[in-house]
């Protein structure tokens, strides 16, 4: 029991400080990525079709932690689309119930782990597919493609362009 409880204390680690230049590059990327998605949604699609809450968390990963395995393109794109598909399936089978929401998140975690495409915002995309309301439910099987797939591609293109402008950044680490 002592060992079990002892694991909950965590470890002391030295945290690396983020410099203002790195923080500025992260801001530029996050702002540009979301601005382009919002612009495309309103100007090109004449609706809020590309704007999904999970993209906020994706922005943190691909712009502020571009070296993270969870931020790599295969994880962002395939992890998100797989999870969104799982969420759609759960909604269509069980409706917007607590069981469906729980299954959408847990099955998306399982699916991403088994396919080696873990992207934490993917679980949010699965949850949004179930709990997102009528406008999301009307998309049905289009939801994993538009907004999730298309929005992920837009954000990845911008992440590749912006992150590689800074000399000290390299993105992606791998495809």
UniProtKB/TrEMBL annotation:
Signal peptide range in chain numbering: none
Keywords in UniProt for this one?
Membrane, Transmembrane, Transmembrane helix
InterPro entries the record matches: HPP, TM_HPP
Q: What's the domain of life for this entry?
A: Bacteria
Keyword Transmembrane among record annotations: yes
Looking at the UniProt entry, the stretches that span the membrane are 20-42, 48-64, 76-94, 141-166
A UniProt-annotated Pfam family: TM_HPP
Where does the HPP transmembrane region domain lie? 17-172
Q: Is this entry keyworded Membrane?
A: yes
In terms of PANTHER family, this protein maps to: TRANSMEMBRANE PROTEIN DDB_G0269096-RELATED
Q: What is this protein called?
A: HPP family protein
What organism does the record attribute this protein to?
A: Vreelandella nigrificans
């Amino acid at each position: 029991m002592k060992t079990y409880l002892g694991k909950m204390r965590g470890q002391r680690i030295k945290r690396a400080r983020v410099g203002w230049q790195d923080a500025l590059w992260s801001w530029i990327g996050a702002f540009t990525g979301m601005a382009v998605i919002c612009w495309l949604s309103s100007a090109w699609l004449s609706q809020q079709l590309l704007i999904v809450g999970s993209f906020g968390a994706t922005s943190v990963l691909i712009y502020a932690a571009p070296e993270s395995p969870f931020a790599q393109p295969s994880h962002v794109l395939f992890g998100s689309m797989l999870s969104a598909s799982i969420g759609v399936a759960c909604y269509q089978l069980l409706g917007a119930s607590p069981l469906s929401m729980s299954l959408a998140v847990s099955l998306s975690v399982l699916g991403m782990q088994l396919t080696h495409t873990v992207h934490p915002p993917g679980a949010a995309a699965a949850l949004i597919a179930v709990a997102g309301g009528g406008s999301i439910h009307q998309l049905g099987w289009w939801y994993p493609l538009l907004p999730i797939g298309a929005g992920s591609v837009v954000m990845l293109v911008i992440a590749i362009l912006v992150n590689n402008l800074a000399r000290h950044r390299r993105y992606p680490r791998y495809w």
